[in-house]
Specification:
alpha/beta; Rossmann fold; nine-stranded mixed beta sheet; 14 helices; about 40% helix; Peptidase_A25; protease; Pept_HybD-like_dom_sf; zymogen
């Protein structure tokens, strides 16, 4: 008996899954600004160094800048701290203090403002557990105004509530639906969303904190976009706080290809292999990456093996910073009492 070989059907490729993406506005600016002579129309950026912390303030002022960068119109602040990869408690304290000071300027709160903190992510997946862990370490006070008013009526506190709604795969409910229901009931003056992000550069994984006043799309960094949480959808201002904990395999593969080309050109100038690889256009590079990842059926997200220790440390840093920023009565020394 002879078997007739079946012809393979052409595969419909979603090239967006094989693009190099980032949740960080800073990285998007660095990627696209060279194409515009170092300055993107409608985008303002400034950087300062502060005792081991690099602070970058970036403002996307109009739709032209938004379209070029692929980010929403608004303000983005980035703290780059390479030392966060190491258990330097003094540095962590300084980062929390800087975060608190910068966040106050972003939020513009009054003493009476009610704040709702949303810890996005999956508590059971370590690189995605940042949001829930931050919520665990916040000093929540909204209930005290009714049940223990003597504690908060002394001044220096404001009503703060926190919730980690989980992910749709566990709850069966869209995160945005849960948050919308809570906002409708609590009626906060500000919503803070804390989430893990995806970076373009390996150097920024576990070293960077981003604050943005444009809200957030849960899961966007790993290609799992859900309905956005922003002022338009919730009816109140939304500030997003995030830390990149993963980088995708496409980024690593693309960077490796570029590194090989550069290294070959240095060691063996004008060699045929370098010329061939250097002439690959973006689509051809994506095709190579697709062929590499096709047996897996999808992209991969990569995180350092020390992420379990790091995620706890950075969650404490963010929680300490938010506790100090939201409650004037709490000093940085006091803040450590609420984290574990």
């Amino acid at each position: 008996m002879r078997y007739k070989r079946q012809e393979q059907q052409p595969v419909e490729i979603d090239w967006n899954s094989y693009s190099v993406n980032t949740d960080l506005a800073l990285e998007a600016h660095q990627i696209f600004s060279p194409e515009h002579g170092g300055s993107i129309p409608g985008v303002q950026s400034s950087t300062e160094e502060l005792d081991g912390i690099t602070i970058t303030r970036l403002s996307i002022e109009n739709e032209m800048g938004s379209k070029i960068m692929g980010k929403m119109v608004g303000n983005y602040l980035t703290l780059e701290v390479p030392g966060l990869r190491y258990k330097d408690t003094d540095l962590q304290k300084r980062v929390a203090q800087t975060l608190a000071a910068e966040f106050r300027q972003f939020a513009g709160l009054t003493p009476e403002s009610t704040v709702l903190v949303i810890g996005l992510g999956n508590r059971k997946v370590t690189p995605d557990a940042l949001g829930p862990l931050v919520c665990d370490n916040l000093f929540v006070t909204r209930h005290l105004y009714e049940h223990m008013p003597e504690v908060v009526n002394q001044g220096g506190y404001r009503p703060v509530a926190a919730v980690a709604p989980g992910v749709m795969g566990i709850t069966g409910i869209e995160t945005s639906e849960i948050v919308h229901g809570i906002v409708k009931k609590v009626k906060p003056d500000l919503v803070i969303c804390v989430d893990a992000l995806a970076a373009r550069s390996l150097e920024r994984v576990n070293t960077t904190i981003q604050i943005a006043d444009v809200g957030i799309s849960p899961g966007a960094g790993v290609g799992n976009k859900r309905k956005g949480l922003n002022k338009k959808s919730l009816g109140v201002p939304v500030i997003a706080v995030g830390v990149p904990t993963v980088v995708d395999a496409v980024t690593i593969t693309s960077d490796a290809m570029d590194l090989i080309v550069n290294r070959l050109e240095q060691d063996v100038p004008n060699n045929g292999m370098t010329k061939l690889m250097a002439n690959f256009n973006e689509q051809e590079k994506k095709q190579l990456i697709f062929e590499l990842l096709q047996p897996l059926g999808n992209n991969l997200m990569v995180t350092p093996k020390e992420v379990d220790t790091f995620i706890e440390d950075v969650a404490n840093v963010i929680a300490n910073g938010l506790n100090v920023a939201l409650h004037e009565a709490i000093s940085m020394d006091d803040a450590t009492m609420y984290t574990h």
